[in-house]
Design a protein that fits this description.
It is a single chain. By secondary structure, the protein is α+β, with helices and mostly antiparallel strands. It is built from 7 helices and 4 strands, in the order ααααβααβββα. A 4-stranded mixed β-sheet has the order 2-1-3-4, covered by helices on one side. The structure holds FE2/S2 (inorganic) cluster (FES). The site of FE2/S2 (inorganic) cluster has 12 residues, from helix 5.
Amino acid sequence: MSCLKEQFDELRKIYPDEIKDAMVLPLLQMTLKAKGHLVESDALYIADYLELPAMQVKEAMTWYSMLYRTPVGKHVVKVCRSVACSLRGEQRIVAHISKKLGIKPGETTADNKFTLLEVECLASCGTAPMMQINDTYHEDLTEAKIDQILEALQ
Ligand code: FES
């Protein structure tokens, strides 16, 4: 945590103490980037660092789907399962990716390359069905498009 502590201290210099609550998410993201996934002790550490109630940090940690709480692969494939994507074939999309990668939602391939997750609305409803892989959105998905995307990442 010492290297992370230095990063936390750097960020804290630009946040006034009155709005230190706003540092919860960036500190969780920094920790995630350093460690790959978050555990309860990370939330407790941040709560202690910011002198905030532990529950406040734990709530943030469990609310956001991008704050992984289990180990994930190099490429995290998040398929939106909310209404627009669901109506436009989300289950077909997930089934295709599952077959292609040989994993079910929530699982990671044996080579740690891909993790498949179903998540709530990613705010790209007009281009449903869609998925996010790491920081990139892939929209208006078809099976052929998915094949191209995944093959490019192999
Ligand atoms: S319903 Fe899929 S992005 Fe909103």
